[in-house]
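Appendix B, example 12.
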Amino acid sequence: MFSGVADLRRVFEAAKKRREIGRGTLLFVDEIHRFNRAQQDAFLPYVEDGTVILVGATTENPSFELIGALLSRAQVFVLRRLDDDDLETLLRRAEEHLGHDLPLTQDGRAALRAMADGDGRFLFNLVEEIARLPADSPLGPQELARIVQHRAPLYDKAQEGHYNLISALHKSLRGSDTDAALYWLARMLAGGEDPIYILRRLTRAAVEDIGLADPHAVVQALAAWDTYDRLGSPEGELAIAQCVIYLATSPKSNAAYQAFGEASRMARETGSLMPPMHILNAPTRLMRDLGYGKGYVYDRATEQGFSGQNYFPDGVTRRSFYRPGEHGFEREVRKRLDYWDKLRQRTATARSE
């Protein structure tokens, strides 16, 4: 077990001496993600010059846990969870080793594989328990559940599992798959995820993926948040589930999200341009003399309640950022925008004549 960079240097010095006499060194590091940045940096020169062949094992996503320089010099092999066929193969091998079949019905056998949840080591632990039982009474799912304990679902709230499941929930909402969204919500809550984190993400989905296609979506998200704050778990979790159902079944639009992104890019590109003089307030005489507010038309005082004046900076071509779609309430918003565009064009034509 290494405790710091000094320990690593001793290992590397020993590897250099072996290399001088023509012997290589394969260095296996378990849980390599536990090494801090300085310790990972220490590997680099010895991996680069071939002093050691480094084999690291980790249960975390190396993209998050390893420094880029070390990861770029490595080949990543992903070991995935065992599927149902793999677990059945392990069961048959265990029975061959025992010399007899396990006392399980076909349904009980399937339940045993489900309990293992892709973990071969946990499966063998269950096999050891079942192998001690009498062979004359095969166990079905219910009997099996009374005798052995289920494996807790794999879920690390601080690492990749956390990001994978919230991504699955968000994308299921975006794809209007209500049942899948409810499943991922249940998985996260069963894994001990903080419900407030989920509620924050649901609120984000309400404004990012639904927006004005259903303006009530964000109201529902905030109401679920408030309800959970008042009730807590487990009662308040039903409010979260109700919010998930509402968001998943809502019409979707990211038009507001895209519009704000385009407006932000234009704001960065145009810098510190002043607003046009006619829409600036003139609280002092000097400002009035300088032209502040001159030519401003109060929209409510016009016949149509719309002046059609320019509100972009002088010299900047007018841009159209928000382009609503045809889903949900945005159909009505589009009608409003089209109406004002027509009035604006009509006003511009009248001024030019």
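The longest strand covers residues 26-30. The chain is about 55% helix and 5% strand.
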